[in-house]
Amino acid sequence: MGSTIQASFLRLLCRFALCGLLQAATFGLAGASSSPDDTEPSTKPSPSVIADWLAQGERKQLSWRVFFSEPTLQYDQTNVVFVKVDLPFENLKKKGKKHDLHFIVSATDETGRWSNGNAYRHQPLDINASKDLAMTFTASASFRPGRFRIAAIVYDTVDGKRSVTFHRVVVPPQRPESSPELFRLFPRVTFDTPWTSYNPSFLVTTQRSIQMDMVIEFDPHFIYKKRLYRLKHANLPFMSAAAALTRLNFENGCVRVSGLNSLELGTLVPPQPAKTVDWEFITTRLGEKNLQERTRVSVAELTKRPSTDGAPFFERHLEQLLADPPCPVASAPPLRVLAIITEGTDFVERTSYSKIESQCQCVVFYIRARFSSKPLHANILDSLELGADQDIDLIETLPPRRRGIQSERQLEDAAPGDDLRGIAKHLSPKVYDLGFEGPVEFQQAFFYLVETLKNLSSETVPPLN
Fold it and tell me: For the chain, which domains are there?
């Protein structure tokens, strides 16, 4: 019964493209709960040894429970398979109280040849020092479309026993792509790949040079409760999608990225080449801000109201970008492109809109994540971060006492509006609206963006379905 519930929970997480997050969280908890023994830990089995184990086929010398998720499309355009293994202590105890466990996940390419890389975990274990009931390992493998075979291996160096199992993975082909070079730099299989990394990039070839500015707005709206208010910052799915867009790599042109917190008049990412954007820093910074703002408010903050200068701040930033091309180009005239990536931003009442005086002579893509309400994966994140039974309270710094109010889910009002769209429509006669609510819709918008850029460079624009 327990394994069935776990499998259902994992399928739910993968449905919302959170396999990688769960992998990190689960493995971190598993590693922390099992104390190493006093012996010298062994090293990772050599590639030749692993190859021999794979060639010898399935084996079950260690009692275990294995779960393979279905391939799930991610915002980075890979399809992830999540692997989870449980080793019950009641069975391990029969072979001794101390163990030295190695967990390996490998996969074949489409020719049936095993990949040179793999996912690997190592955990010395003293059952007497652990309060858990099982040792848990997790890992992930990401695939491009095709047919593959994935293997999970657990090996105990203490008694030399191992278990090996195989699972077939079928990733359906994507729609016919007008850009066959788009995934040229992508390997067929990768392991434990963080979405915060830049590589590999999406290669795009165009007839004219592309000068693209991407402006990411990280603050959708304020949350109010009487005199209290706080910012709602971008969530992980939004940042995953934005990170994928910043990996566009024009063979003839460039991409410059900037990121704003317009509602608090801040710049999170100063204008810089796309490949230098540090998404690990961004997610850490916003995570810290979210935690602080969800749990603490000072007396000084109760006496002020949100700024009404958010829109002028955003407009000034656009004007500065448009006055300064992101890079020189070899051919003239280049195609100037502005992409605004947002969840839709609600500026506060009485905000003034100065409006940009002249149009930018550019093409504008307004790319909005349309999360209709607080998504389920955000609730799961709350449980992972704070504990499922822990209340979310705001705390005054002076005087030092708890201020009991409602939880965040009760604080939120209707879905945010789209004040940024009003700014975008004044920039250019060519404004393309692209919306998405998950990885599948994002893929459609992403392909349309690439196809449109290629056709604009040859003066042909595809219809938006």
Answer: 2-171 (2.60.40.3880), 194-456 (3.40.50)
